[in-house]
Amino acid sequence: MTTEALNRLKTAEAEKITHLDYFNIGISVDCVIFGFEKKELKVLLIKSDLEEFADKWSLLGDLIDPFEDLDSAPYRVLKQRTGLDDVFLQQVGSFGEVKRHPSGRVITTAYYSLINIRNHQLKITDNEVHWHTVADVKDLAFDHKKIMDACLKRLRVQAMDEPVVFNLLPEKFSLRELQDLYQSILGIKLDRRNFRKKISLKSWLHDLDEMENNVPHRPGKLYKLKTGLKTTTL
Amino acid sequence: MTTEALNRLKTAEAEKITHLDYFNIGISVDCVIFGFEKKELKVLLIKSDLEEFADKWSLLGDLIDPFEDLDSAPYRVLKQRTGLDDVFLQQVGSFGEVKRHPSGRVITTAYYSLINIRNHQLKITDNEVHWHTVADVKDLAFDHKKIMDACLKRLRVQAMDEPVVFNLLPEKFSLRELQDLYQSILGIKLDRRNFRKKISLKSWLHDLDEMENNVPHRPGKLYKLKTGLKTTTL
DNA sequence: TCAAAAGTGTTGACTTTACACCCATGA
DNA sequence: TCATGGGTGTAAAGTCAACACTTTTGA
C-alpha cells in the first residue's frame, strides 16, 4: 500500500464514517474441493440456506479470522469440513464485485484443493455437504459457478505438467485409474498407448510390482507416486 | 460465503468487538507496471515514505473504494498515476499474511500491467515515481518483491503463447525490437532465425511495408500487431 | 468361451534446435 | 571500408497423433 493509501487510512481512523466505509468489507475464502470417484471428477458442495439462494449449492468457505494468514484460512476450512490436513491447496484468484454477495460487500479469495475421497469419507459429519459430479454442476449460489470454472481451468493446466493429480488417487493405483482420472479432468478421451508413453516419460511413477485384485478382468500393475514428488502446495 | 459465515456476519453486526475484529482489515490493490526501454524490462515504483521502509521503493497501490469492483481498482490506480486507461491489466494473486503491513492488517490483490513507456511519459507528474530495471530490483518495501516476482513469472508464461507483450511496444516496431523485448522478459538470448520463424508461425504480425529510420545500421522492416489481437485484459 | 481390459511399437507429420553467410546502411 | 544488424534455409533430433493385435483374468 502506498503513502497516500496510508494517509487515507489514518484519516479514516479519525473520521468514523469514512473508516466504516473503507473497512466494512468482509473477506472470505472459498474452497473448490475436487475429488475423484467412479471415473468422475467431483466437487464438494454445501447447501446454501441463504434465502436469496434457496435450493442452490455453494462452495465451502468462511470469513477469514482476524489473526490468520490469508493462505492459512482454506486449510482451516478444509480441516473443519473434512477432517483432513496436509492437503493440496492452491490459490486461484480473488473475486470482488461489489454486488456479488446479497448481504453486503464480501471479497473472496478462491483456492482449489485435491483430495482423495476415500481418505476423508468418514469424517464428513455435516450432512449438508455432498459430492457433485463437476460436469453436471450447472448453477451455484453467488458467483460460485464462475469460481469453480476458474479452478477447473487451473487444474487442467496444472495437471499437464506437474504431478498434482495424484492427490486425488489412493496411494496405489493402476494406469487405467490414472488415465480415467486425466480423462475426467480434461473432459476428453485419451489414447491408451500414447498416454502410457507420455506418463512414463515424466518419470513420476514407481512400479510397485503388485497387481490389482478384485477387478472383473485382467488385473493391471499397481504404481505409486515416487517419493519426493508429492505436492501439497506450490 | 457459507451459512455459518453469514450467521457470524450477523452476529458480528450485533457485537461490536467481534465486528471490528472481522472487519478491521484493509483491502488494497497493488500494480506491477511493466515497461520496456533501451532493451530492458522496467517496472514503475514509488518511493515509500513509511518510516519502517525508509528509502525503499514500493509498488503503486491503493485501498479499494467501498463501491468499486475489486478488478476496477487497479484501473483507477493506473489512471491516476500514469493518465492511461485502456491498458493491459491482469490479476495475479492475493497476499494476506497477517504481518505483511506494519501499520495494520492489509490484504492486497496484485495485478500486472503492460504499458508503452513513451505513451504515458509526459503524464507522470508525481516525481516520486520512477522506472527501475527489473533485473536490478533487489528489495522492495512490504512483500512487494515477492509480488513483483509472482507477476514477472506470470508475464513469462503468458508471453509465450498469447500476444500480450505488444502492449509494451510502440505501434510500429521491428523484429529486432520484438526480440530484444522477449529476451529482456525471459532473461535469455534467443536465436534470431528461430525467433523470426516462431513469430511468423503465430501470425500475429502485419507487415507494414515500411522501414525503420534513424538507426545506425541497415534498417529493418516495421510491423504492427494485427487488428483484433490487442489484449487489454484476459 | 466370452467379456473386459492389459500390455505393447511403428510410422508420418510436425516442431525445435543448432548453425553461417551475404547484404544494406550509416558513420 | 568498417561496424552493425537485416535477412534467410537446412538438417538432425525430438515430440505428437494415429492406429491393432495378442494376452490375461474372472465370470
Structure write-up:
Two copies of one chain form a homodimer. The first copy, chain A, has 234 residues and is α+β, with helices and mostly antiparallel strands. Chain A has a single domain (25-225), classed as Nucleoside Triphosphate Pyrophosphohydrolase (Alpha-Beta Complex), CATH 3.90.79.10. Helices cover 32% and strands 26% of the residues of chain A. Chain A contains seven helices and ten strands. The first copy, chain A, has helices at residues 3-14, 16-23, 73-82, 117-120, 144-161, 175-186, 192-202, and strands spanning 26-37, 40-47, 57-58, 60-63, 88-95, 106-114, 129-133, 173-174, 205-211, 221-225. In chain A, the strands form two sheets. In chain A, strands 1, 2, 3, 4, 5, 6 and 7 form a seven-stranded mixed beta sheet that branches. In chain A, strands 8-10-9 form a three-stranded antiparallel beta sheet. In chain A, strand 1 (26-37) and strand 2 form a beta hairpin. In chain A, helix 1 (3-14) packs across helix 2 (16-23). The longest helix of chain A is centred in the middle third of the chain and has 18 residues, at 144-161. The two termini of chain A are 26 Å apart. Chains A and B meet through helix 1, helix 2, strand 1, strand 4 and strand 5 of A and helix 1, helix 2, strand 1, strand 4 and strand 5 of B. The structure holds a DNA duplex (27 and 27 nucleotides).
